[in-house]
Structures are given as C-alpha cells and as structure tokens.
Description:
Layout: E1 2-10, E2 13-23, E3 26-27, H1 36-53, E4 58-65, E5 71-79, E6 84-88, H2 89-95, E7 100-101
Parallel strand pairs: 2-5
Antiparallel strand pairs: 1-2, 3-7, 4-5, 5-6
Amino acid sequence: xxxxxxxxxxxxxxxxxxxxxxxxxxxxxxxxxxxxxxxxxxxxxxxxxxxxxxxxxxxxxxxxxxxxxxxxxxxxxxxxxxxxxxxxxxxxxxxxxxxxxxxxxxxxxx
Length: 110
C-alpha cells in the first residue's frame, strides 16, 4: 500500500487528500510477513519506492480499485523543468529487482 497526498481542485482552490493506493501490475514482498527474508525484502522495496517518489512531483494515473477498495495506480516521475512525464516507477520497481510483475492471478512471487 502506498499513501499519496493528492491535490483536488474544489471551488478554485486545491484541497489535499491522503489516498491509500496499490501500484498496478506489480507485487512486492509483504512487510508483515512471518518470513524474515521476505520482510527484509519488503523493507528494501519500500525504501527504493520512497527514494523514487518521496518529496517529488509525480504523475499518477488511477485505474480500477483492487479487492480492498484501493485504487490501482501507475506512477511516473515528472520533470518540472521540461514539463514532461518521465520513467514509470512501477516498471523501475520491477527492473530494479524490488518487485515482480503481477496481474492479480495465480500465486504471488514472494
């Protein structure tokens, strides 16, 4: 679960909301696992994600909700100077070895 603070315009002014989300198309190790190795992998993945998005301007695409009501999101880094959407954070989590591809079916990799 990722907690994002998003700005929603209401009455011409931004209103900030905290939204619990799940990164689309990936699966990471579980933080609350009883398996110590899995829990350690989860902490490393969490830190990698934090390094990619914390205190940064990002572009978030919202998809459908998962079975727990969390929106599935795709996050891209955003280049403020060039006003362009950059690398996909979801993909970088996979290529960096912090996550596995996941489409919501079958046995999870961790």
